[in-house]
Amino acid sequence: MACNSCEENWFWKKIGRCQRCMDQLTTLSVVCWVVWYFGFRDDPRSVGSIALLFAGFAFNALLFLHLWMKFVILPWRDRQKRSKH
């Protein structure tokens, strides 16, 4: 990634700070679920269907973690820091 947040080495310093990552996860999630819905929903036990289900849930989970950090945890930390000063 090209942004400063993504060039950090530690996972928790990256998550929730990069809009490009969140945009990519949103796009990947939507594309994955659309492909699964139109191509694999009729045969949910096939290998391709299961792989897309796992990928879709993984993209959604990582996107949720990014959004949780951005809109809940990071603002909460900022409020905590301001209240201490």
Key terms:
74% helix, 85 residues, transmembrane helix, DUF3624, mainly alpha, elongated
Fraction in helix: over 70%
Let me know the largest β-sheet: none
| CA-based gyration radius | 17 Å
User: What's the shape?
Assistant: elongated
| Beginning-to-end CA distance, first to last residue | 34 Å
Structural class per helix/strand content? mainly alpha
The overall pLDDT, averaged over residues, is: 89
Would you identify the regions where 5 or more consecutive residues have pLDDT less than 50? none
What percent strand?
under 5%
What is the number of helices?
A: 3
Order of helices and strands: HHH
Strand elements, count: 0
Classify the oligomer. Answer: single chain
Transmembrane segments: 21-38, 50-74
InterPro entries: DUF3624 (IPR022072)
Keywords: Membrane, Transmembrane, Transmembrane helix
Protein name: DUF3624 domain-containing protein
